[in-house]
Amino acid sequence: MPSVLSIQSHVAYGHAGNSSAVFTLQRLGIEVWPVHTVQFSNHTGYGAWTGRVFDGQFVDEVVEGIADRGVLPGCDAVLSGYLGSPDIGHAVVAAVARVRAANPAARYCCDPVIGDVGRGVFVRPGVPEFIRDVALPAADLVTPNHFELDLLSGRTTRTTAEVKDAVAAVQAIGPATVLTTSLVTEDTPDDAVDLLASEGGRHFRVRTPRLGLSVNGAGDAVAALFLAHHLRTGSAEQAVAAAAASVWGLLARTEAAGSREILLVAAQDELVAPSRTFAAEEI
Q: Angle at Cα 197 formed by Cα 106 and Cα 139, nearest 5°?
């Protein structure tokens, strides 16, 4: 059974950060060691919340305690998401180094949460630069959305060829595998959205019907799904097809229910047996 150290935010109500990724990974048969970077009542999309943000020292202390159990040689991957500050980011990268020292084969999957189309950058100053200059060089897999791919590559992409060039620029920084989510290019139909998995000079696109909702935590689930299936198969092509099917099923069920929170538990069968599948096309 693979084991993943997941260092992310956590909410008590709803599903975002670790509250999305942990159950997703567990449902796929992965042992998860969650380390929370924040503990909030709910995600910030509600406009009001309670709780507190932890600092890098707190993350270091929790990872130290895990290491004291002598289990780091059995850690197969580290997964990170939203970073509240560069301080937290440095603690994540230090944890990655510690895991790799115990298990050189361990991989680091970085979900570079920075911003989105229509919202722009929504993280604190210094975080985008930290992700580009420190986290990405340490990463094996990275899962930006289209907006984040452009920002990290320093490009504006509208065509598939431009997206491929941006992916290559990100890969040149460090990560061999790039999953671009929420991808819309000039050849994406208005009623669809694309995911593009890039690895080893090859690009695999999955096109799914566009749904009329936007919920917090979907990106966290996608990153967890992609990592889980990549750990299992070693294939970006298979991982993106499996991840796309599951997240589309989750979101379709969420839309049908009119829920503001992703139906991660109620629709959990979509994680292991998606109701609809999508083929990955090499482009």
A: 30
- Provide the token pair at 138: 């340490």
| For residue 61, pLDDT beyond 90 | yes
Residues 236-264, mean pLDDT to the nearest whole number: 97
Beta strands in 26-76 (DSSP E): 31-40, 51-53
Token pair in block for residue 5: 């150290």
Are the beta carbons of 256 and 217 closer than 8 angstroms? no
Beta bridge partners of 3: 31
What whole-number distance in Å separates Cα of residue 32 and Cα of residue 256? 30
d(CA 2, CA 31): 6
pLDDT digits (tens, 9 = 90+) for 142-188: 999 999 999 999 999 999 999 999 999 999 999 999 999 999 999 99
Evaluated on CA atoms 1, 143, 192, 119, the torsion sign reads positive
Q: What percent of the chain has pLDDT over 70?
A: 100
Confidence of residue 1 (pLDDT cuts 50, 70, 90): confident
First to last CA, the chain: 33
